Amino acid sequence: MRLSWFAKSRKPPSAATFHTEIIADVPVPERAEDVRFFSRKLVQPGRVRRFSNQDLRESAMALFYLVVAASMPVRWWASICDRMSRLRLKRHVRKQFPAYAAATRAVLGGGLDARKLFEALLAARHRRRLQLAAHLTGFRWAPTIRLDGQEGLQAALLRGHGAIVWCDQFTSQTILGKRALHEAGVEAHQVSVNSHGVSESMFGLRFLNWPLVEVENRYLKSRIVFERDDAYQVTIRIQKILKSNGVVLMTNTIHAGSTFTEVAIGESGWTHLASAPANFAARGKAALFAMSTFETVPFREYRAVISPELLPAEAEMGRDGAKDMVLQARYILLKRDRLLEALKLFPEQMLTWSRNGRLTEASADPMTEDDPGS
């Protein structure tokens, strides 16, 4: 039953307009919590720009970091990224820091040094750019990448029903997370969107995004490109991969699909989680895992962590192919728990933070750098 609806805050003319509506508040009695489900329907497609100011900045950054990766010693890379992150610090603080501080403190507590965390995030974003450049030039860089939790994934695959790996948007997940799986012998299929990358302009889609996609594809068995018009065909393809005991990677983004969820997190915060991974797990027999990838020593050591299987006690009873929103809600809460654990370890590497209040109560979007289907 639909409870109420609301429109998102006003967007620039080039952005698409969506109608967002509450589907249901689903209680999970044993956890004494509710999970709110939303639908997100496209009302008016956005106008695709030919070129944007962001394209100019990203082009300059890409060229700069290609030079750094090709000519500078690895031991200098982290300090270069730190200095580059301070070039527009005042602007970032003015436009993005207030919402970021409110969101992070709501989750991790009021005693958090949000300014220090924010500056560390800006540096981590630049290291992310240099990670891509290092893979493109790549002959000198050989970081240590550790994968934890592979045993649980392999054990689930022995059951023969495939697995979904639900990835968080930490700065190193995009490339290093896929690389960790690939080097461990896991052949994964990534669910993605056509605009995946740093830009959605015509110029960006043609020139700026393809290097990232090309590098990621080195470590994937295939890429499942998702568009709203062919959601049914994408769903069928994912189901076929899972039935053939494949591994499907889904990034926790709420902007690609038509539904998403909201759940409490941390001390007084809220987070938004994609509903598709929980939906696939609840309807079928595929195993569901959470995954986070961290940079433990910049450009030297990385750690990819696959959680134990997310398996509610009621999962076996509910997996009959029917849409069970209570079972989905249980999966969502298990994922939320793993996300909170990861945020406490490396909060400065998380690219996206939801509002400090509920979606229906907020008047403006927080600072995010959502990367759909990364």
Describe what you observe in this structure.
- With 374 residues, the protein is α/β, with parallel strands linked by helices.
- The chain has one domain (4-361).
- Helix content is 41%, strand content 22%.
- It is built from 13 helices and twelve strands.
- A seven-stranded mixed sheet has the order 4-12-11-5-8-6-7, with helices on both faces.
- Helix 1 (53-71) crosses helix 5 (114-137), helix 2 packs across helix 5 (114-137) and helix 11 (276-283) packs across helix 13 (325-345).
- The longest helix is centred in the middle third of the chain and has 24 residues, at 114-137.
- The protein is globular and about 55 Å long.
- The model is unreliable at 1-13 and 363-370 (pLDDT under 50).
- This is Lauroyl acyltransferase.
- It comes from Mesorhizobium erdmanii.
What is the chains' assembly state?
Answer: single chain
Number of domains: 1
**Helix-residue proportion:** 40-55%
Count the beta strands: 12
What gyration radius follows from the Cα positions, in whole Å?
Answer: 20 Å
Largest sheet strand order: 4-12-11-5-8-6-7
Q: Give the distance, in angstroms, between the N- and C-terminal Cα atoms.
A: 33 Å
Poorly predicted spans: 1-13, 363-370
Structural class: alpha/beta
Average pLDDT, rounded to a whole number, is 89
Quote the beta fraction: 15-25%
What's the number of helices?
13
Which helices and strands appear, and what pairs or packs with what?
Elements: E1 4-7, E2 17-28, E3 33-44, H1 53-71, H2 74-84, H3 89-95, H4 97-108, H5 114-137, E4 144-148, H6 150-157, E5 163-167, H7 173-183, E6 188-193, H8 202-208, H9 210-217, E7 222-226, H10 231-243, E8 247-251, E9 259-265, E10 269-274, H11 276-283, E11 287-297, E12 301-306, H12 315-318, H13 325-345
Helix pairs in contact: 1-5, 2-5, 11-13
